[in-house]
Design a protein that fits this description.
This protein is an alpha/beta fold. The protein has two domains: 51 residues, Vcp-like ATPase, Chain A, domain 2, CATH 3.10.330; 192 residues, Vaccinia Virus protein VP39 (Rossmann fold, 3-Layer(aba) Sandwich), CATH 3.40.50.150. The protein contains seven helices and 13 strands. The chain has a seven-stranded mixed β-sheet with strand order 7-6-5-8-9-13-10, sandwiched between helices. β5, α4 and β6 form a beta-alpha-beta unit. 32% of the residues are buried.
Length: 247
């Protein structure tokens, strides 16, 4: 990070160099250096060496599709009760932004099962997770979920697809009793379709929410909201699997 707060995320490799318009730094000079240390480029420009957060990684992910924004992803983790050791199922994978968040949360003993019908899209997600050392916690499946999921008894399941209401039977079959379901949708009419499907497929505690994020300019002498904010990104729908018809 520089004085202007612009950041770059790099993977340190022996013998490589980090090039910027403000100079170059050898990776060998950074490897083993404590986080938070100020370093300088060959032009004498100071930079700060920091560990990237999950938020940083998601925002800088190489992508070919829209991603779930960090403001929603963190909330999804809590609502779906995802923690180390959990078995989490998601569809579709997209560029792997939410997959990344899930994988970091379930490690070291949990597992993410990620379904995507588009092989080229999922390949990018595989590469993204591989570069971050997280692919070992993810099982990627390239197939259409209309045929159902291979896994059963998973703790949580999240759908990021255009028509989640078409897959409620498949979702119900994959979740453990009382398991956590979630989905994200851009429009209200899609949410209505999903609520109807959830109520017809033995799900309860249905909730619909959205999150708005308003960042501030962090200058102590003139603290004020930034001119741009992150408004509506999607409706979040949550529910729990019930066993009413199986009692």
């Amino acid at each position: 990070m520089g004085r202007d707060r612009k950041t770059s995320i790099i993977r340190l490799e022996p013998g490589a160099d980090f090039h910027t318009h403000r100079g170059t730094i050898a990776h060998d000079d950074l490897i083993g250096t404590a986080w938070g240390t100020q370093v300088t480029t060959h032009l004498g420009v100071p930079l700060i060496l920091l560990r990237p957060s999950t938020d940083d990684l998601v925002r800088n992910l190489e992508r070919s599709t829209q991603i779930v924004y960090p403001k929603d992803a963190g909330y999804i983790l809590m609502k779906l009760n995802i923690a180390p050791g959990c078995r989490v199922l998601e569809a579709g994978t997209g560029s792997g932004g939410l997959t990344l968040v899930f994988a970091r949360a379930v490690q070291p003993t949990g597992r993410v099962f990620s379904y995507e019908s588009r092989e080229d899209v999922q390949q990018l997600a595989r590469e993204n997770l591989g570069r971050l050392g997280l692919a070992e916690y993810v099982t990627f499946r390239n197939c259409d979920i209309v045929e159902g999921f291979e896994e059963q008894g998973v703790d949580s399941l999240f759908l990021d697809v255009a028509n989640p209401w078409d897959y409620m039977n498949q979702v119900h079959a994959a979740l453990a009793g009382g398991g956590f379901f979630g989905s994200i949708l851009p429009t209200a009419n899609q949410v209505i379709h999903l609520i109807d499907a959830l109520e017809s497929a033995d799900f309860g505690l249905v909730q619909v929410e959205e999150l708005l994020l308003r960042p501030y300019k962090t200058a102590s002498a003139r603290l004020r909201p930034k001119d741009r904010l992150t408004p509506h990104t999607g409706y979040l729908v949550f529910a729990r699997k019930l066993l009413l018809s199986e009692e």
